[in-house]
Amino acid sequence: MTAIPQISADTLANMEKQRRRARVSSTFRYSLLIIVGLIMVYPLVWMFGASFKTNAEIFSSPSFWPKEPTVQGYIDGWQTSTPYTFAKFFGNSMLIIIPKMIGTAISCTLVAYGFARFDFPFKKIIFSTVIATLLLPNVVTRIPQYLLFRDIGWLDSFLPLWVPSALAGDAFFVFMLIQFLRAIPRDMEEAARVDGANTLQTLIYIVVPMLMPALISVCLFQFMWTMNDFLGPLIYLSSVENYPISLALKLSIDTTEAFAWNQILAMSCLALAPSLFVFFMAQKYFIEGISTGGVKG
Amino acid sequence: MAELQLKSVEKMYGNGFKAVHGIDLDVKDGEFMVLVGPSGCAKSTTLRMIAGLETISGGEIRIGDKIINDLTPGKRGIAMVFQNYALYPHMKVRKNLSFGLKLKRKPKDEIEESTGEVSGILEIDELLDRLPKQLSGGQAQRVAVGRALIKSPEVFLFDEPLSNLDAKLRASMRVRITDLHKRLREEGRPATVIYVTHDQVEAMTMGDRICVMKDGHIMQVADPVTLYEKPANAFVAGFIGMPEMNLADAELSLDGGAKLTLAGQTITAPADLAARLNAAPGPVTMGIRPQHMTLTPDGEENAFSGTIHNIEFMGHEVNVHVTVGEASFIAVVPTSQFDLKLQRGDRVGLRPTGTQMHIFDKASGENVSLAQ
Asked: pLDDT digit string (tens) for B3-27?
């Protein structure tokens, strides 16, 4: 029999010290994280709280909790100062976003599939060009694009917002899908070809279902970016009846002499809702899509 | 009728690398042909060219009487089983099986009937409503075979289908596939099979005939027995058989029967060798299977004298590694006949027995001891 080694009092004290140090350290770390997290989220929380305040109260107290909660901001904000209600602007936003999202998903899938799976003349040069547009600041192309769409006669319509995306104009999404496709083995597509599927059938029945997580991410990104896009609609849309939410929010700042901040904040809260809703719905696929596609590559 | 013919089929890649050097191969209707060779011998490339997944740089491939060079894989009348199954991950087993038929716009009841029949044959009825990720390796492999079978193709192509399975499952799948082939033959709808593997056990046990390949060339096409007993060249001799055939450089002389000199020791070859020989005296490569060498006490006549450098006890037999000069030999001795006192460093004699000695041309490697 071996004797159980006695733990000396020193060792015990040492262990206790280490444990205490670990506890202090984690308390410190979590407190810091919570504080920084609160600082970051506070403006959002404040905005939500302030949307229920009266206009006068907003600037009188930094607290987010309204003293006399009211939904008047929502009611007035929804009516807007234009002949249209905010529903019209929400509708416009959806009218821009949904076709744009569908167009992006279809066109980027086709282009990415072509680049990832086929060999054709000048492939490398064309691919480099597509990737080069990724590095081009958006602002640089605004003026030539504006002139082009003006000459075609598409100003004050949704076409300038839809068409570039429907022609795989978003190089980032093409790149993301290519990376995702590269990680998918070709065997399934070959099996489909042996089963008698042509290129398009292989794409629709085999590749697209496997590409789904990445496609959901693409749609989600496109949804959020388009929802938040201010410059695009500002340049191309001139009549108020075509305005999406981003412009409508600005509208309420432009047209009133004394800004009704509670209305603006109330509508801002509503404007956030669709993006948040879509994000939480698709969160699982979204993370899967970007983690196996863009990042790992 | 689904005879498969390859005529001077070549594969050259864009970078100028020639993977397949004009091979000719005739596979008879209903035959189980195994393509075997070390990795990089272009056996899979050849299979993929037959499938239409790789283009052909030269030559002609026929199935029956139609040339299929330029047909798409779907129109060639082939079905393929892939190494990693390649089941469609988002489709249930039932849809995986019927996908090919659906693309051919077969009526629904016919598809259902075929699915039922195939799943019955392969015993996968209970898996029909599962997704591929819910299947074990063996089950997935059966579904992959089913997906090929359901199309009733003229030619089945198997690309190392068992290499992802564990040894036990591999053995049972091997039997299952050969049984299936026999069953189809008995039912009067023989299936022509091209089966690629790097595993010689699979090749020897499954193939009606075996095509041994090396570096994009066909080394020999023959049935398993011929391949084992009459290898056409030193490569085939060394590739087929476990442990592999002993090959050693020796000097052949033909005065008064065939004599072989190795490391200064000369022995008279088995009597029949001289009659089979088609070679001039001089340096040759002699080949003899480990099973055809016996151990003798050192210094006996007609035996090479060497030193034991390793003894592997395998259970029912013992592999004795013996060095003679520069050359190394393995002799397989039944355990009952093995002198257990022998150990590493002992001197023993090695004597070729029976009529299984081969002589290969030293330069070309060709077997020059095949009876004419």
From this structure: 999 999 999 998 989 999 999 999 9
- Would the CB atoms of B100 and A195 count as touching at under 8 Å? yes
Residue B212's SS3 state is strand
SS3 content of chain B, % helix, strand, coil (to 5): 30, 35, 40
**CA-CA-CA-CA dihedral for B224, B229, B231, B234, to nearest 10:** 130
Of the candidates A170, A148, A172, the one whose C-alpha atom is nearest the C-alpha of residue A159 is: A148
Out of A192, A197, A209, name the one closest to residue B90 (CB): A209
Residue of A nearest to B158 (CA): A191
* Segment B235-261, tens digit of pLDDT: 999 999 889 999 999 999 888 778 889
Domains of chain A with bracketed CATH: 16-73 (no CATH), 82-295 (1.10.3720.10)
Please write the tens of the pLDDT for every residue from B171-195. 999 999 999 999 988 988 888 999 9
Sort strands B78-81 and B155-159 into parallel, antiparallel or unpaired.
parallel
Domains, chain B, ranges and CATH? 4-229 (3.40.50.300), 237-361 (2.40.50.140)
- Residue B103 contacts A, CB cutoff 8 Å: yes
Q: How many CB atoms lie within 10 A of CB B117?
A: 13
The complex scores an ipTM of 0.86
